[in-house]
Amino acid sequence: MTGSMTARRTRLLGRPVRRALALAGLGCCLCTVTPARAEDEPDPNRWEPGVLPAINYDSDIGFGFGAIGSLARFEEGFNPYRFHMLAQLFMSASQDASGTIGIPFHDHYVELDFPGLLDDLLRLNAKVAFGKFTNTGYYGLGNGSEAQSFSDAELEGSEVARRFHTYGHAYPSLQLNGRFKLFEQPTRTGKRRLEALTGLAAGYHWVDVYGDSRLAQDIELLESETGDGRTLSELLHGTEDHVALALNLGLLWDTRDHEFAPSRGTFTELSTRIYPGVDQELRYLGIYFGTSWFAPIIAEHLVVAARAVADLLVGDPPVYELSQYGVLVRDAGPGGSGSVRGVPLRRYHGKLKALLNFELRGAFPWVTIFGERMRFGLVGFADAGRVWTDWESRTLGGEDLDGPYSPFKVGVGGGGRFQWAETFILRADLAYSPTDETMGFYIDIGHVF
Fold it and tell me: How many domains does the chain have?
């Protein structure tokens, strides 16, 4: 990406959801900060609520507004809590080239978590969500995909230019997962636990392909009686409205000392998502392996964290699946705040994905603000990721879709962390990608891993 396109694309990127710029108001509260004392340790039987406004501006979607809420119930004998709910209401308003103001972006959900059921043998996770993204990224297939360059005048005067690398995607979804305990052993800092994962996911997907966009051009080529058309017909699917139904299966191994802000231990997931193809013959299988490791340098105040991820697709997945990964937790990548920070969201599409993340996490001691336990922290990080178009080499126009060589895409940067009680963590990260020459600024909920 070069020239004026680079200048335009180097901006605030990432999921414009859960951004809580209102945290600046916390600076006004510092006069009430006192160090947390032993007697300030939380009651083991308590409620922990947390609510923050979600306000942001992003040049892709306009002015975003909404709210994020968290509610946890702690009781003795339940780990990590008795009940937890996380809810978000978020949308954006923007003005198009004709001067019309619309609401093009929605991301609303409610997540529920019930550990400790059936005498601590079962943990249920449920999520109901609705998403609408008019700027879902699509730059072509493969690790070697290139962004089309446009002049400033073209970007300002042409809706086709502004939407060239995007398409519309809206979907209601429902996910229910059960985690069954197979093995548990107490340790000095927590527990070792092996769980079996099983669940269902369902959704309906509306796909809006913009005229003369990169995706529209690939669909037109797909329908041609050419070698390149046959190649794309084998790779590009799910570009029309459809129903999706999935079965989730897997194993989870957890030795972390804290689920939300671990300082030692590991979390490893080996899982699969099976799509039987109830619509448009979208039959495919996703295999996910992810492992995260945490080691303290100075107790909980300085921690090294690392993650490695591999996500593999077999069959005929829809286009949006080519830039997503995960089973227990679904996220977009490579690119964006949850994978390779600094690289544009959904920048690369392929059936095979690999991610590497490294963080050095620093946390200050707990303090009490208006009677609430809180702490602040700083993080430095380096991310890397790449895709492979397919299980075999694929070419279009005589060019390898993964490029003559296949470098990992890299993002580096740093940020701040704010933890409110045990379960609510807010992160703000600034990242730069030396491989894509783009920047990203992200405010989001929870650690990346």
Answer: 1
* 372-388 and 367-369 strand pairing: antiparallel
- Once rounded to an integer, what is the mean pLDDT over residues 303-310? 98
Of 111, 72, 118, 105, give the one whose Cα is nearest residue 88: 111
Stated as kind and residue range, the H or E segment containing 235 is: helix 227-235
Q: For the domain that residue 217 is a member of, what is the CATH number? A: 2.40.160.50
Measured between alpha carbons, how far apart are the two ends of the chain, in Å? 29
* Residue-number span of the structural domain to which 147 is assigned: 3-445
Q: Are 232 and 220 a contacting pair, CB within 8 Å?
A: no
- pLDDT beyond 60 at 85: yes
* Between residues 179 and 19, the one the model is more confident about: 179
- Angstrom CA distances, 71 to 46, 80, 89, 124, 256, stand at 11, 13, 15, 16, 22
Strands, E, within 101-238: which ranges? 101-116, 122-137, 166-186, 191-208
The residue type at 40: D
CA angle 157, 162, 164 (to 5 degrees): 130
Please give the helix or strand (H or E) that residue 411 lies within, else none.
strand 409-420
Supply 438's token pair: 């783009």
